[in-house]
């Protein structure tokens, strides 16, 4: 077990290194240089070169990369080229926003999606066809379009909720919750369908397993067959999709954050890319990879606990 | 090594070519027309559009649909229809790059990894790493590097999809490589990579095409999303995402703009996804193994049963009309099946008028080749028929109740408490997610109404009773940790947990080695003696019948063709099919001196739905004559009790050895 | 296979066995237990050798090793005097179809997407037989197993289990081989179809120079077809000899248990067997299974 843990952690670190190396290379391949971005249009060529020299931009790549890794290990993610503020604290401030969005979005879509999937698999027939067709459509709707439509209905027409903007939890919990309703609803509508399909498929498969007949033959009631045995049998693939959902939301909530003007890391990524804020881009890639890697590790350990075949070995 | 008779339970749809599937599905045709039409319309748009996509008309900004502007105008008075149509071809054609790149990269790597174990480890790791990269963020970083060059972004997206796609492809490629025909190609001397290309890739093609279409949809979505957040092609070039973004800005002034812009995008992705669904063979799910719905009152079921020409059906209906009160008095402790007819709803009949009787403490064998309806008959006795199958008529009498007409509550009282069931695949009959102890204790608790501690004690006792050597260890084991023979013992213990009076065993030893089979048969024999239980033993092995059964019924094509005491049927068979089976069984030959041939029964068991009204064995019977085309009832046998369904039974009796004579060398159809 | 050819070209050839397996050991993975442990046997020209054992006894592994489908850990496999233990895939082609196979599962041993004629002509193509010849030989092979002319254009799904196994046999015989490894070739078949295939195998070898390695778990099936038999238990040979001798007078305890455990469809004879089995079980120091 210990060996397994160490091996997994080693892989996680390797993944982080590779992701940050990719980000590093991309940043260096881009036409921009730190000096060009930081000093703006008005700066002279010499000023730009001098700035670049000062941040070591012309040193060999590997040397630069490891210097950056060294800084990161000391907890220093660098400073933004645009406003000169340190990146670390900025990201730390943004993380809770994205985390709240991802956690709530995953939870709500999991509840809706799993319920839909179970109902489809168990009831079958017209209900199943209806749910499957419906989820097929939901699956295809672009999130930003759904978001805008929701804004139109709930904010513009009904005036129930704020259209955009964010209020931190510490400032006003109720306003915080209201500012998250539409983003989370948008996520739920567009992500629940995938989970519903996965749940339906896994449940359907579990229900065709030979042991279902044995259970019936010893008089097991239907609710036990469905909710204890079939759902348990289907739990591993469902859990994996929920984890993937979470990962996608954490790294990919750019559109939602931009649409609803939420100050999360997705929005930061968009503006950093738009303004070529190179150190910020690099830092964000690292943080996003870290989240994926941690979630994957957690999933793997959970699998070890939940899957008898893995647990035994 | 096992004869899996349950695999036929799932009727296979005839494989249709992909093209056929698409042509036959309105949804798929509609999707295809939409996608192709959109591209064609877009490419030819300069020829027929009334306005150019960049043509501004500041006197008509933010208009709703009108004759002049069918889909309205945007904030600069540009015609939305023109802009949407113009943007279509670039969007779709550039989006195709992603699936092309993803498939071109992933498929060869997958084939390589699936063929060589050494490559597999490496590629698995690689795919895990790719899978752990935060896709969206990397794409954005990529845009930071190369700018909003969409073709390049689509290539990067395709590469990032390697991880996910490899997961989807690898499992299938691996299992295809393990198919015997790939090995057979190796024995033929075909080169490994040639074999992969010829035998593995074509069989993966459906999956590849389906993923291709799905990724196509995803790529369109990504492009639009990027354009929406301002990282797509730059204005004034029209893009779908950019138009939705504009629409969202002017949502207070002109909400209409949302509809055509987002709608076209949504419809296009829906088209791609539904095309993929149809290509994947539809989303139809195999029906669950047991019925989860509340049972229709079976009396209705019998009343609505379609008319059937067989004589048994009419007697069945006559009896169905009678109330359950007139159960024969001698039925106490016995299970009596009368004229049972089972069919697929809106489909063929599977079992035609089967009658059986198992007395208390007796063992009845139900024997026949696969597909004769043995399993279906045994499922019916506990109301375990799969959804889609139902009893059309007939009765199953148990302790004064007709189980065919019993409601679900009555059946639940019988299942496990009075009648128990064990099935063919012991390791698959137990739930892999729970320990043996948990499963046993759960059913003891429910069936005996005892508490947890007592239930665990009883579970331990049951395992001891079925001859398990180390019960405490087995209790804490998961099903995959025990051998097949052990699992069958556990399944028997589970069946005994409600102290049933009758055990229905469907091929309980077929999947086991002969030595283990002998042990299990010994165990069953002991149970009969100690617990005064009766058993219905379903099997295709005549030797097993000889070992354990008192009586036997031989089934062929949904009918009982011969029944009687074991000694009568196996030693003095009166039906040509029974004779043929015995003569075809190498076990029946005790001394091989001089015997060089087994009986060859030409052809195969006819499928349900293709049965004639005459003798169903006639096409294969070497004694068949013209009389055999008439309907043939089960008539009393000459020696002993029981019945025979053969019109020529007096002529053919004792002519078993004739079956060994060759018809023609390898000449059977 | 429709013609009988005289094959013994030199006295030497008659003396060398068709196949010789010497001290064969195989393990799966690097550290796994030995799946096959020091197994030796020979098959003479035109002889049928039965290889019998329960699941996990290593019989399939031996068959696959002979066909070059699993790597051999130690020992030698000699086919017609030539060491084929570690033949490369390319060198295996030089066997020219003398060594062929019929697999257990008639449903997965044929590619569902190819007409069966393709499967039959593939080994001929590899051996460089000209096209016209190939068509002729494929038809002859199909004919010899009793399949109608024109079958070569049909797809596997159009055949029943028994017919597919005939196709598989035709495919093995199309190169006119000296040895066919039949791995559980009849176990997945129903009784009546099994009998058809067994009769067919027996007819095909009559008068031809064709040997079988017939792998099965069922005593009676081996008894029907094989002249000599090798009994395997947990990767080791426990007994081998003339089938008739071994059946009449089994030496190893394991062989006796195996025979007594195999049920016969005659209630009285079966009662005797059962008793014999119970006695063997009682007398055994170590429990079986
Ligand atoms: N759920 C089902 N739907 C349709 N046909 C079925 C179903 N289950 C079994 N059958 C058909 O019923 C026939 C009898 O099957 P079965 O009882 O399993 O035979 P046996 O047990 O004798 O091998 C077969 O032709 C089989 O294909
Ligand atoms: S009725 Fe005719 S065809 Fe049927 S078994 Fe008897 S002799 Fe054969
Ligand atoms: Mg069956």
TrEMBL record, chain B:
<feature type="region of interest" description="Disordered">
    <location>
        <begin position="295"/>
        <end position="324"/>
    </location>
</feature>
<feature type="transmembrane region" description="Helical">
    <location>
        <begin position="92"/>
        <end position="114"/>
    </location>
</feature>
<dbReference type="InterPro" id="IPR003439">
    <property type="entry name" value="ABC_transporter-like_ATP-bd"/>
</dbReference>
<dbReference type="Pfam" id="PF00005">
    <property type="entry name" value="ABC_tran"/>
</dbReference>
<dbReference type="Pfam" id="PF00528">
    <property type="entry name" value="BPD_transp_1"/>
</dbReference>
<dbReference type="InterPro" id="IPR017871">
    <property type="entry name" value="ABC_transporter-like_CS"/>
</dbReference>
<comment type="similarity">
    <text>Belongs to the binding-protein-dependent transport system permease family.</text>
</comment>
<feature type="transmembrane region" description="Helical">
    <location>
        <begin position="126"/>
        <end position="146"/>
    </location>
</feature>
<keyword id="KW-0472">Membrane</keyword>
<dbReference type="GO" id="GO:0015833">
    <property type="term" value="P:peptide transport"/>
</dbReference>
<dbReference type="InterPro" id="IPR027417">
    <property type="entry name" value="P-loop_NTPase"/>
</dbReference>
<dbReference type="InterPro" id="IPR035906">
    <property type="entry name" value="MetI-like_sf"/>
</dbReference>
<keyword id="KW-0067">ATP-binding</keyword>
<keyword id="KW-1133">Transmembrane helix</keyword>
<dbReference type="GO" id="GO:0055085">
    <property type="term" value="P:transmembrane transport"/>
</dbReference>
<feature type="transmembrane region" description="Helical">
    <location>
        <begin position="21"/>
        <end position="43"/>
    </location>
</feature>
<protein>
    <submittedName>
        <fullName>ATP-binding cassette domain-containing protein</fullName>
    </submittedName>
</protein>
<dbReference type="GO" id="GO:0016887">
    <property type="term" value="F:ATP hydrolysis activity"/>
</dbReference>
<keyword id="KW-0547">Nucleotide-binding</keyword>
<dbReference type="InterPro" id="IPR003593">
    <property type="entry name" value="AAA+_ATPase"/>
</dbReference>
<feature type="compositionally biased region" description="Low complexity">
    <location>
        <begin position="312"/>
        <end position="324"/>
    </location>
</feature>
<dbReference type="InterPro" id="IPR050388">
    <property type="entry name" value="ABC_Ni/Peptide_Import"/>
</dbReference>
Automatic annotation (TrEMBL), chain C:
<dbReference type="InterPro" id="IPR027417">
    <property type="entry name" value="P-loop_NTPase"/>
</dbReference>
<dbReference type="InterPro" id="IPR003593">
    <property type="entry name" value="AAA+_ATPase"/>
</dbReference>
<keyword id="KW-0067">ATP-binding</keyword>
<dbReference type="InterPro" id="IPR003439">
    <property type="entry name" value="ABC_transporter-like_ATP-bd"/>
</dbReference>
<dbReference type="InterPro" id="IPR017871">
    <property type="entry name" value="ABC_transporter-like_CS"/>
</dbReference>
<dbReference type="GO" id="GO:0016887">
    <property type="term" value="F:ATP hydrolysis activity"/>
</dbReference>
<feature type="region of interest" description="Disordered">
    <location>
        <begin position="263"/>
        <end position="289"/>
    </location>
</feature>
<dbReference type="Pfam" id="PF00005">
    <property type="entry name" value="ABC_tran"/>
</dbReference>
<keyword id="KW-0547">Nucleotide-binding</keyword>
<feature type="domain" description="ABC transporter">
    <location>
        <begin position="19"/>
        <end position="259"/>
    </location>
</feature>
<dbReference type="GO" id="GO:0055085">
    <property type="term" value="P:transmembrane transport"/>
</dbReference>
<dbReference type="GO" id="GO:0005524">
    <property type="term" value="F:ATP binding"/>
</dbReference>
<protein>
    <submittedName>
        <fullName>ABC transporter ATP-binding protein</fullName>
    </submittedName>
</protein>
<keyword id="KW-0813">Transport</keyword>
<dbReference type="InterPro" id="IPR050319">
    <property type="entry name" value="ABC_transp_ATP-bind"/>
</dbReference>
<comment type="similarity">
    <text>Belongs to the ABC transporter superfamily.</text>
</comment>
């Amino acid at each position: 077990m210990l060996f397994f843990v160490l091996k997994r952690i080693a892989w996680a670190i390797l993944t982080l290194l590779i992701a940050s190396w990719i980000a590093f290379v991309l940043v260096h391949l881009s036409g921009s240089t730190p000096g060009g971005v930081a000093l703006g249009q008005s700066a002279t060529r010499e000023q730009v070169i001098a700035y670049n020299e000062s941040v070591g931009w012309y040193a060999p790549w590997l040397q630069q990369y490891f210097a950056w890794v060294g800084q990161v290990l000391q907890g220093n993610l660098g400073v933004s080229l645009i406003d000169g503020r340190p990146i670390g604290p900025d990201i730390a401030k943004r993380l809770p926003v994205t985390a709240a969005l991802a956690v709530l979005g995953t939870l709500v879509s999991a509840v809706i999606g799993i319920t839909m999937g179970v109902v489809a698999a168990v009831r079958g027939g017209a209900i199943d066809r209806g749910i499957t067709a419906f989820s097929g459509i939901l699956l295809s709707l672009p999130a930003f379009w759904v978001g805008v439509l929701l804004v139109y209905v709930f904010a513009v027409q009904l005036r129930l909720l704020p259209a955009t903007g964010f209020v931190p939890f510490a400032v006003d919990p109720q306003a915080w919750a209201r500012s998250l309703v539409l983003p989370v609803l948008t996520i739920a509508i567009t992500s629940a369908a995938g989970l519903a399909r996965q749940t339906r498929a896994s449940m359907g498969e579990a229900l065709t397993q030979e042991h279902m007949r044995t259970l019936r033959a010893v008089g097991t009631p239907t609710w036990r067959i469905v909710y204890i045995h079939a759902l348990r049998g289907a739990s591993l693939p469902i859990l994996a999709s929920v984890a993937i959902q979470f990962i996608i939301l954490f790294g990919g909530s750019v559109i939602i954050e931009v649409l609803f003007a939420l100050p999360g890391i997705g929005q930061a990524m968009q503006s950093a890319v738009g303004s070529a804020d190179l150190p910020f881009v690099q830092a964000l890639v690292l943080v996003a990879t870290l989240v994926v890697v941690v979630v994957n590790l957690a999933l793997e350990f959970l699998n070890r606990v939940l899957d008898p075949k893995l647990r035994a070995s | 090594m096992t004869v899996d008779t349950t695999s036929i339970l799932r009727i296979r749809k005839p494989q249709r070519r992909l093209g056929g599937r698409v042509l036959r599905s309105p949804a798929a045709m509609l999707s295809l027309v939409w996608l192709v039409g959109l591209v064609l319309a877009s490419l030819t748009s300069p020829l027929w559009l009334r306005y150019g996509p960049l043509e501004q008309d500041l006197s008509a900004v933010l208009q709703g649909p009108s004759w002049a502007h069918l889909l309205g105008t945007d904030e600069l008075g540009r015609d939305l229809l023109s802009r949407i149509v113009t943007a279509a071809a670039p969007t779709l054609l550039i989006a195709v790059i992603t699936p092309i790149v993803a498939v071109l990269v992933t498929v060869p790597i997958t084939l390589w990894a699936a063929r060589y174990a050494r490559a597999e480890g490496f590629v698995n790791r690689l795919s895990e790493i790719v899978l752990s990269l935060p896709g969206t963020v990397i794409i954005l970083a990529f845009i930071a590097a190369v700018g909003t060059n969409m073709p390049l972004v689509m290539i990067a997206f395709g590469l990032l999809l390697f991880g996910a796609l490899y997961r989807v492809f690898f499992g299938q490629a691996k299992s295809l490589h393990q198919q015997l025909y790939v090995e057979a190609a190796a024995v033929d001397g075909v080169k490994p990579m040639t074999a992969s290309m010829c035998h593995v890739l074509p069989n993966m093609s459906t999956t590849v095409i389906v993923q291709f279409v799905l990724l196509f949809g995803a790529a369109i979505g990504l492009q639009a999303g990027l354009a929406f957040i301002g990282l797509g092609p730059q204005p004034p070039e029209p893009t779908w995402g950019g138009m939705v973004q504009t629409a969202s800005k002017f949502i207070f002034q002109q909400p209409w703009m949302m509809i055509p812009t987002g709608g076209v995008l949504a419809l296009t992705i829906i088209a791609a996804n539904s095309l993929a669904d149809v290509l994947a063979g539809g989303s139809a799910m195999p029906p669950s193994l047991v019925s989860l719905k509340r049972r229709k009152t079976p009396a209705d079921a019998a009343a609505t049963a379609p008319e059937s020409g067989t004589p048994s059906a009419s007697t069945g209906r006559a009896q169905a009309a009678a109330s359950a009160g007139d159960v024969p008095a001698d039925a106490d402790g016995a299970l009596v099946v009368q004229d049972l007819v089972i069919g697929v709803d809106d489909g063929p009949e599977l079992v035609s008028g089967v009658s059986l009787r198992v007395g208390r403490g007796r063992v009845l064998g139900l024997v026949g080749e696969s597909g004769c309806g043995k399993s279906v008959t045994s499922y019916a006795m506990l109301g375990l028929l799969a959804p889609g199958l139902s009893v059309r008529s007939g009765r199953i009498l148990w302790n004064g109740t007709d189980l065919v007409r019993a409601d679900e509550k009555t059946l639940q009282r019988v299942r496990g408490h009075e009648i128990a069931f064990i099935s063919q695949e012991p390791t698959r009959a137990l739930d892999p997610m729970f320990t043996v102890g948990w499963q046993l204790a759960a059913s003891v608790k429910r069936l005996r109404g005892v508490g947890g501690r007592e239930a665990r004690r009883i579970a331990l006792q049951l395992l001891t009773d079925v001859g398990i050597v180390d019960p405490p260890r087995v209790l804490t084991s998961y099903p995959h940790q025990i051998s097949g023979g052990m699992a069958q013992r556990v399944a028997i213990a589970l069946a005994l947990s409600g102290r049933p009076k009758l055990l229905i065993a469907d091929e309980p030893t077929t999947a086991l080695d002969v030595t283990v089979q002998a042990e299990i048969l010994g165990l069953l024999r002991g149970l009969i003696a100690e617990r005064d239980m009766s058993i219905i033993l379903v099997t295709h092995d005549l030797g097993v019948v000889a070992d354990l059964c008192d009586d036997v019924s031989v089934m062929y094509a949904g009918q009982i063709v011969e029944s009687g005491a074991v000694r009568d049927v196996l030693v003095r068979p009166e039906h040509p099919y029974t004779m043929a089976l015995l003569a075809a069984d190498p076990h029946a030959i005790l001394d091989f001196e001089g015997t060089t041939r087994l009986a060859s029964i030409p052809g195969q068991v006819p499928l349900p739905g293709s049965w004639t009204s005459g003798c169903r064995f006639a096409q294969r019977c070497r004694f068949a004559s013209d009389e055999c085309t008439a309907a043939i009832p089960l008539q009393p046998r000459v020696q002993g009790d029981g019945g025979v369904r053969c019109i020529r039974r007096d002529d053919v009796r004792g002519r078993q050895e004739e079956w060994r004579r060759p018809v023609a060398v390898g000449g059977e159809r | 296979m429709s013609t009988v050819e005289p094959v013994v070209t030199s006295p030497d050839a008659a003396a060398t066995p068709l196949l010789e397996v010497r001290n064969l050991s195989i393990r799966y993975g690097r550290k796994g237990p030995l799946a096959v442990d020091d197994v030796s046997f020979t098959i003479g020209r035109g002889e049928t050798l039965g290889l019998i054992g329960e699941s996990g006894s290593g019989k399939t592994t031996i068959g696959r090793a002979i066909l070059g489908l699993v790597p051999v850990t130690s020992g030698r496999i000699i086919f017609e005097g030539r060491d084929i233990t570690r033949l490369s895939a390319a060198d295996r082609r030089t066997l020219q179809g003398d060594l062929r196979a019929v697999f257990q599962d008639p449903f997965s041993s044929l590619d569902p997407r190819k007409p069966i004629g393709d499967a039959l002509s593939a080994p001929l193509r590899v051996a460089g037989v000209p096209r016209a010849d190939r068509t002729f030989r494929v038809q002859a092979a199909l004919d010899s197993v009793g399949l109608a002319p024109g079958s070569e254009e049909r797809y596997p799904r159009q055949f029943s289990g028994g017919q597919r196994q005939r196709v598989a046999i035709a495919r093995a015989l199309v190169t006119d081989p000296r040895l066919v490894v039949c791995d559980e070739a009849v176990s997945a078949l129903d009784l009546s179809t099994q009998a058809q295939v067994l009769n067919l195998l027996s007819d095909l070898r009559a008068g031809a120079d064709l040997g079988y390695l017939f792998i099965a778990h069922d005593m009676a099936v081996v008894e029907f077809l094989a002249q000599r038999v090798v009994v395997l238990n947990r990767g080791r040979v426990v007994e081998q000899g003339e089938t008739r001798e071994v059946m009449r007078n089994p030496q190893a305890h394991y062989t006796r248990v195996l025979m007594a455990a195999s049920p016969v469809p005659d209630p009285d004879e079966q009662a005797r067997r059962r008793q014999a089995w119970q006695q063997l079980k009682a007398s055994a120091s170590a429990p079986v299974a």
